[in-house]
Write a structure and sequence with these properties.
The chain is built from 25 helices and 20 strands. With about 700 residues, the chain is of the alpha+beta class. The strands form 6 sheets. Strands 17-3-19-18 form a 4-stranded antiparallel sheet. Strands 13-5-15-14 form a 4-stranded antiparallel sheet, sandwiched between helices. Strands 9-8-11-10 form a 4-stranded antiparallel sheet, sandwiched between helices.
């Protein structure tokens, strides 16, 4: 009672406390929701926010298109599709603004003309091919007229197709506008002409930098800083990360292999005695039964002689034997002599309900029509009649070739058709029924028969057991738990003899890391704002591998830091120091070229036909600055020693050959226009636009 009384006395206080707690709970949920709302933006392109859901919808459409075409998409391909979709969304955002600014659009009438007009879009022609190589307009019109009656999936695909055609039309208009706007003034054309045709020759003395031993070169911090300040514009970069990592691979142990072998060995007697071998294989094997006839070139060396050389017959079982990542038994189901390659012609009469058919006649009508054609052909001696009737009546695309299917491999055609061609001599003809309809078949050729077999495989993959998985997990967990710092990480790798791998210069779109099939989780961790330099993660569980990784470098967008440039450009920096050393060595000998050659290893040679356009100086490679100096000199003038890319040079006895005067710059115009047009077509426009704006890429927060 005392407790109850105390509660009554403090009831108002309790109500306030509970209210505050509820309010805090609600506010926390609200703030989290606001945070999720802010984080639900995958891209910000020049201030325009692109929601993650819009991106995901587009990815789903693309994946669905792949699946509808029967394509199995791997996890790696899925990431590539996501990255490509994101890049396309950036481009669409940028170019839409450009189209609007340029006043470019595609009207409904113009878009319709792209499908049904005199000059349809190339994609329409590819999708609705006509017999004459053009577009089948009747097919296009029929599709459009029946569009509202098609399933939603097909209507959605058509809408995407229309959008693609419209976007391509917009891009072509924009590109044509850009190309038409390009102009080369005559004075500039004259300059291009001079650069291309003014040639110089000279005597030079060159001391190559590889004559100076690296061990004699001291690169100071001052040298590195000077190079960086002069060249950092060459090292602009997007945001990058470097990681080092250890892979603990989960693979079958010796016990796992022994267990897989025991399974196959124990199944041998049942497999050999199974009355229905197809059902037995499909119920007990990791590989379903395949009824394809195979020759000796189609089987592994492990079993070739057992099947084809030792006289074994149907029912014979061989194994267990190891092949790839499995243990196997093989049983001969049937042996025959069969041709490897076959050739036939046919006239397909399809009917409503047959596979891949849009015919309207009944099955009975199709049978009667096929029989009628067969009777006509059987009673005729006209060798060309079959082809003429195929072109007129067949439902198969082969009708364009008079029904000729050309050469095909045994087993590739539908079974009744295939077996008729195999089992009947060349020249035979009959009516055959398949799932596609009725075929008037004529056997036209086949290769010589050879031994073939139908084989049943009982395959058991060598897989990793739960116990093995747990053992590797324990090792990886222990390594991660005991090595939390970068120093511990490196020391443990060396002590345990593990292999340390590295992945430099990762960006947010990276989806391939050596030794790891699906590494996006690692990339996301590396680009997470909470991950700091030299952090070591606990570990990643990724598709049969455990990975422990350390973040070893963070590079922000912009100019790469000096230490990274110093590492990447260490040879260029060393050559710059060598350049000054070479210049000083040559200066010490004054004009004594013979001593430069004999004591320094310099070369005295002549270069000719040097143009500013080529930037190449004889066999010294690209030396743009030296070529520019050479072509700016007067005859008889001497310059040097001066440092180049690969050597230090003294230039003398210069002769300049001016080109013949001309007023015809048509070749120059053509060349420059072609170069500009190629840049337009190769994406330079989008690259230029991207360099002008800010893009915030949040993909690593989502996938």
């Amino acid at each position: 009672m005392a407790a109850i009384e105390k509660i009554r006395k403090h009831s108002k206080l309790l109500i306030v406390i509970i209210g505050v707690a509820l309010l805090a709970f609600v506010l926390e949920d609200l703030f989290q929701s606001m945070g999720r709302s802010r984080e639900n933006i995958i891209l910000v392109v020049d201030g325009d926010k692109i929601p993650y859901q819009d991106f995901e919808d587009q990815v789903d459409k693309t994946l669905e298109n792949y699946k509808s075409n029967g394509t199995n998409v791997t996890s790696e391909q899925t990431i590539a599709i996501r990255n490509n979709t994101l890049e396309q969304m950036i481009e669409d955002n940028l170019m839409t603004k450009e189209y609007e600014a340029a006043g470019i659009n595609v009207s409904a009438e113009e878009l319709y003309d792209q499908f049904t007009g005199e000059n349809p879009h190339q994609w329409v022609a590819q999708s609705f091919p006509g017999a004459d190589g053009g577009v089948d307009r009747e097919m296009v019109n029929n599709y459009l007229q029946n569009l509202n009656n098609l399933p939603l999936e097909y209507r959605s695909r058509w809408a995407d197709f229309e959008r693609s055609v419209k976007q391509d039309r917009l891009q072509n208009k924009f590109n044509n506008l850009l190309k038409a706007s390009y102009f080369v003034p005559s004075q500039l054309a004259a300059k291009y002409y001079a650069n291309k045709n003014t040639k110089a020759s000279a005597d030079i003395v060159a001391l190559r930098y590889n004559n100076i031993a690296d061990s004699t070169v001291v690169v100071t911090d001052k040298d590195t800083k000077a190079y960086y300040e002069e060249n950092k514009y060459r090292y602009e970069t997007d945001e990058r990360r470097d990681i080092e990592y250890v892979v603990f691979e989960v693979k079958p142990s010796l016990q796992d292999r022994q267990d897989a072998l025991a399974y196959v060995r124990d199944m041998r007697e049942e497999f050999a005695n199974a009355e229905n071998v197809v059902n037995f294989v499909n119920a007990n094997s990791d590989k379903h039964y395949d009824s394809t006839w195979v020759g000796r070139k189609d089987v592994s060396q492990e079993i070739e002689s057992k099947i084809f050389d030792e006289g074994n017959e149907a029912g014979f079982v061989f194994g267990p034997y190891e092949e790839g990542e499995s243990f196997n038994l093989v049983r001969i189901v049937e042996m025959q002599s069969r041709p490897d390659s076959l050739r036939a012609s046919h006239i397909l009469i399809s009917y409503a309900g047959a596979a891949n058919s849009d015919a309207t006649i009944t099955k009975e009508e199709a049978k009667a029509k096929a029989d009628s054609l067969f009777a006509v052909l059987k009673g005729s001696k006209d060798e060309e009649l079959f082809g003429e009737l195929a072109k007129q009546f067949s439902s198969c695309p082969s009708k364009e070739k008079g029904g000729d299917l050309e050469w095909f491999t045994d087993g590739t055609m539908v079974t009744p058709f295939n077996e008729y061609v195999v089992n009947n001599p060349v020249g035979s003809m009959d009516v055959i029924e398949t799932v596609f309809g009725y075929h008037v078949v004529k056997v036209t050729d086949k290769t010589a028969a050879q031994p073939k077999a139908r084989l049943a495989y009982l395959q058991h993959e060598i897989t990793t057991s739960t116990a093995t998985h747990q053992d590797v997990l324990a090792v990886a967990s222990k390594f991660a738990a005991e090595n939390k710092t970068i120093d511990q990480f490196n020391a443990a790798i060396e002590e345990q003899g593990l292999t340390k791998r590295s992945m430099p210069r990762m960006n947010v779109a990276t989806y391939q890391i050596p030794g790891i099939d699906n590494p996006r989780e690692i990339v996301r961790w590396a680009f997470n704002d909470k991950t700091k330099l030299n952090d070591v993660n606990s570990f990643f569980d990724l598709d049969n591998v455990f990975v422990v990784a350390a973040l070893t470098s963070i590079v922000k967008e912009g100019y790469a830091p000096m230490d990274i440039v110093a590492e990447q450009a260490k040879y260029a920096i060393m050559n710059k120091v060598k350049g000054q050393m070479a210049v000083d060595k040559m200066k010490a000998f004054g004009d004594d070229v013979n001593r430069m050659v004999s004591e320094l290893g310099a070369e005295s040679t002549t270069v000719s036909d040097i143009t500013i356009d080529s930037r190449v100086l004889g066999n010294f490679g690209v030396e743009a600055d030296i070529v520019g100096t050479l072509l700016g000199m007067k005859e008889g003038e001497q310059v040097g020693p001066v440092a180049g890319n690969t050597s230090a040079f003294i230039i003398k006895n210069v002769k300049i050959s001016e080109p013949e005067p001309t007023s015809d710059y048509s070749n120059i115009y053509s060349e420059k226009v072609s170069q500009f047009n190629n840049k337009v077509l190769n994406g330079s426009v989008v690259s230029a636009l991207r360099n002008k704006i800010e893009i915030k890429d949040n993909r690593s927060k989502f996938y």
